[in-house]
Design goal:
73% of the residues lie in helices and 0% in strands. It is built from 13 helices and no strands. The protein has helices at 8-34, 39-44, 56-61, 69-100, 104-117, 125-133, 142-165, 169-177, 182-193, 195-210, 213-219, 228-238, 243-274. α1 (8-34) packs antiparallel against α13 and α7 runs antiparallel to α10. It is globular. The model has no long low-confidence stretch (mean pLDDT 83).
């Protein structure tokens, strides 16, 4: 049997992927390793393995008088879950209208959304804050959820409408002939076929919302409503020299996102690639 030829392009591709894997995984492992060390040991040798598995850093961040990690995790999941629900609901309805009905108005709307994506989020921070401060949702979870939903809608609508546009029109036509209305078509045909993209959008929006520090800092001042990303900065500010506690706080903050992405990475890839093929 002849030897199988190995393409240079394949070697380069795997080399790039391995390099990307290393620069992604090594920082996480470094943080995890140093979370078991006292600050003195980290400063002495930050790359060596810990002399012993000391969980005092993890115990300390859960015992800080001004920090409630369990409450902050609850706040993060509640805020991120609310943002995902809002984006998927409103984005799905808008994407259905743009992706399944051809019209000149839809093209203008899509062009406007592309233009909105070019506007930096910080450019709208002050007017959004003024608007939210005048509403009864101030100092509530909605004060963070509503701006984040608005900020992620354009991205979600673009992805969902592109995916829905790739679905066969014959399915809608057959349902309409049978007497189905637009909402029945959306409920029984479009949404079930678009589940991979809805899952992809939901996961990406959840991760972005979970990591959104600036929005939570600007719109919430009540300590009881702050998510875990804000609590992490408080730990850093109050105990900036306690590097072991900082490493432990960073690691437990990253764990939920890592678990979510590892459980759903196949769905994300499927959602991002399924719309590339027509039909």
């Amino acid at each position: 049997m002849g030897k199988k030829k190995v393409k240079i392009s394949s070697i380069l591709l795997y080399a790039v992927l391995i390099f990307w894997l290393l620069i992604t995984v090594i920082p996480i492992l470094w943080v995890f390793e140093n979370s078991f060390k006292p600050s003195e040991e980290i400063l002495l040798n930050g790359v060596a393995f810990p002399k012993s598995l000391d969980f005092s850093n993890y115990r300390s961040i859960f015992s800080y008088p001004d920090v409630n990690m369990f409450r902050s995790f609850f706040n993060s999941f509640l805020i991120s879950g609310g943002v995902v629900a809002g984006v998927v609901c409103f984005g799905g309805l808008a994407a259905f209208g743009l992706g399944r009905f051809d019209s000149g108005v839809g093209k203008v709307v899509e062009a406007g959304m592309v233009a909105c994506l070019l506007v930096p989020a910080f450019a709208t921070m002050i007017p959004n804050f003024v608007t939210v401060s005048r509403l009864p949702i101030r100092e509530t979870y909605l004060a963070v959820i509503v701006p984040q939903v608005a900020g992620n809608l354009c991205f979600a609508i673009m992805l969902l409408s592109s995916y829905m546009r790739s679905l066969p029109n014959e399915l809608d036509e057959a349902a309409i002939i049978d007497g189905a209305g637009p909402f029945q078509v959306l409920k029984h045909i479009t949404v079930p076929l678009s589940k991979p993209m809805f899952a992809t959008v939901g996961i990406m929006v959840f991760i972005w919302s979970y990591n959104d520090l600036i929005t939570s800092l600007v719109y919430i001042s009540d300590q009881k409503l702050k998510p875990v990303c804000v609590i992490l900065t408080m730990v850093s500010n109050m105990h900036g020299t306690d590097y072991g506690a900082m490493m432990a706080a960073i690691f437990i903050t990253v764990i939920p996102v890592l678990i979510l992405y590892m459980m759903s990475q196949e769905m994300v890839i499927k959602g991002l690639t399924a719309g590339a093929v027509k039909g």
